[in-house]
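Bench log, entry 3. Co-assembly request; chain sequences pasted below exactly as received.
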Amino acid sequence: MKDDITRPNIIITGFMGTGKTTLGKRLAAALGYEFVDTDELIVARSGRTVEEIFHEQGEAVFREMESAIAKELGEKEGLVISTGGRTMLDPTNAAALSKKGRVFCLVARPEEIMERLSQDPDVCRPLLDGPNPMERIVELLRERQEGYARFPQLVTSGKSPDELVDILLEIIQQDSA
Ligand code: S3P
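Structure output for the full assembly:
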């Protein structure tokens, strides 16, 4: 990240259901930053749900939309950006978004992810839309482990969103002091 940035973006990554959006919104409010969720931006711009894009146009088209947004947001400042679960695992997206910001990766156990996703039935995750979502979560986590491990980790287990915001604020403020 360059030194002349006064309001560095905060980028939240991590697997589906780790609480990126909930945390991102609260952190943005605490910092007085604008909140952006990459999935929500894709949905707003395309007029389609993530599920519709995956089913009607295919995952590759979704990933292109994701990359275009990463490139665009990477030029801005003063944002808290909650990313889709795979956005930051693409090195080009990660480079674009890291340019003016710092990244944190939320971590949760598969059981907690499953529990959180089942509490959010309105949002469909096409990648988990099969006969055994728990098995798929474990499989995808294993595949993605190395990619997520590149970013500073924040373990969410047993912590409320507000506690997590406080932890992040402390880290952010310590580093900018
Ligand atoms: C995906 C995560 C989703 C969404 C899409 C694909 C992934 O976002 O981008 O369903 O590949 O991990 P959330 O992490 O916000 O659920």
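Strands lie at 9-14, 34-37, 79-82, 101-107, 153-155. The two ends are 16 Å apart (CA to CA).
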